[in-house]
Write a structure and sequence with these properties.
Elements: H1 3-32, H2 37-65, H3 67-87, H4 91-98, H5 112-120, H6 130-150, H7 154-158, H8 174-186, H9 213-230, H10 235-246, H11 250-278, H12 280-298, H13 304-318, H14 321-331, H15 338-352, H16 355-366, H17 371-391
Length: about 400
């Protein structure tokens, strides 16, 4: 890899570590503070809404400001917003910080940072090595996020020597620390990552949607449905639900999410091999649909052990559609339309997802506690069935 690629992956690893830690601690902290299901839904919804808003702003102004400057600005805002989450549980303050879009609990597709990094990475490698680089990019995020979740046990291990650090919420200061380290690493990025220089053989201007407009519209609608369903069970909500339903400790949840991250990292590699045998679309649907059945089954789990087994089994399959989905989108549109296709489909995912935690919070207030898992499983299964029905005859150029 080039020096720029290494720097981008290093910054991404720092962010993912903080996001993995926050995916456990934010939900647990809100539960320990006695916040209602509605308040939790508002905070988690603001996290997702912030990702959507910041991504749209980045799409409009990022190249005008400059990618390196935008990157540094996002890291600086991440540090400030992370301090807010580390020092208070007052919902209005948390919501304002969450709306910056920089305090994510998703380690793989984490809003504006992901969009900006995916715009810069192709400028750091020849076209032939691009797919492999994006594979590393996703694996690094998953493993670093898993380590961050595992590090939640740190306060307990250090409590006897540093009792002032025993409050788990203070460990959310990992956000500003990761942001500061990221700023130092990102300062070395070269001008090659800017929009003015395109990879060999590619135009510097993104192509508009023409022939592929109907395909992109259908994909965007389906991806929006999948993202809406996923918003019911973001990782911070899962931590909150396990703490409330079974009294699960942060240390246990950190270990669970660490194991889930390892399973997801392995699944990325398995997905590439499986797609070579049965095709991208079949890999997406035939792995994602069983994972959603397992997700719905978590709602009916009678014990903590059975719920965790179902959850880990779901994690082993649920992310296999990420690299295959990315490859499928760019493979079914014209090369000149790939940038626009990716932007529209990703925006559809970000825009609808914030609504789901609000509904999930309301469900927790007045209905069965496991309802969000069941609703998420049904909606995401509908996405799988609709995707296969509408696109089973549309093959990407690689096939």
């Amino acid at each position: 890899m080039s020096g720029d690629a290494r720097r981008l992956l290093a910054v991404q690893a720092l962010r993912a570590f903080a996001y993995g830690l926050g995916s456990v601690l934010i939900g647990v902290t809100l539960e320990r503070a006695g916040r209602s299901g509605t308040e939790v839904g508002l905070v988690l919804g603001a996290l997702l809404a912030g990702s959507a808003l910041a991504s749209l702003l980045l799409a409009r102004y990022g190249d005008r400001i400059g990618r390196r400057r935008s990157y540094g600005l996002l890291l600086a805002v991440m540090g400030t917003a992370g301090v807010v989450f580390a020092v208070t549980t007052w919902p209005p303050a948390l919501i304002l910080a969450a709306l910056t879009g920089t305090v994510s609990t998703e380690v793989v597709e984490s809003g504006p940072f992901t969009s900006l990094e995916q715009a810069m990475l192709p400028h750091t490698v020849e076209a032939a090595g691009r797919t492999r680089l994006f594979g590393r990019y996703n694996v690094v995020a998953t493993l670093a996020g898993a380590l961050g979740a595992l590090a939640v046990g740190g306060p307990v291990l250090l409590a006897r020597w540093l009792p002032t650090l025993s409050a788990s919420q203070r460990w959310l200061l990992a956000y500003p620390l990761a942001a500061a380290a990221g700023l130092l690493v990102a300062a070395g990025l070269s001008p090659a990552v800017e929009a003015g220089r395109a990879p060999a053989g590619e135009s510097t201007q993104p192509g508009p949607l023409h022939r592929s407009r109907p395909i992109v519209r259908r994909l965007a609608g389906l991806f929006a449905l999948d993202s809406f369903g996923g918003g019911f069970v973001v990782q911070a909500f899962i931590a909150y639900w396990f703490a409330r339903r079974f009294g699960a400790s942060p240390q246990l949840l950190g270990l669970v999410f660490f194991l889930a991250g390892l399973l997801q990292a392995l699944s990325f590699q398995a997905a590439v091999r499986l797609a070579g045998r049965i095709g991208l679309l079949r890999t997406m649907v035939f792995t994602h649909l069983p994972s959603n059945v397992l997700l719905a089954a978590v709602a009916f789990a009678p014990t903590l052990a059975s719920a965790l087994v179902l959850l880990l089994a779901r994690f082993a399959l649920s992310q296999m559609d990420v690299p295959t989905r990315q490859a499928y989108v760019v493979g079914v549109v014209d090369p000149s339309e790939r940038t626009a296709a990716a932007a529209y489909t990703n925006s559809a995912r970000y825009l609808v997802r914030p609504l789901a935690p609000l509904v999930a919070g309301a469900l927790l207030q007045g209905a069965w506690l496991g309802a969000p898992f069941l609703v998420a499983g049904i909606l995401k299964s509908g996405y799988d069935l609709g995707l296969y029905r509408l696109f089973r005859h549309i093959q990407p150029d690689s096939e």
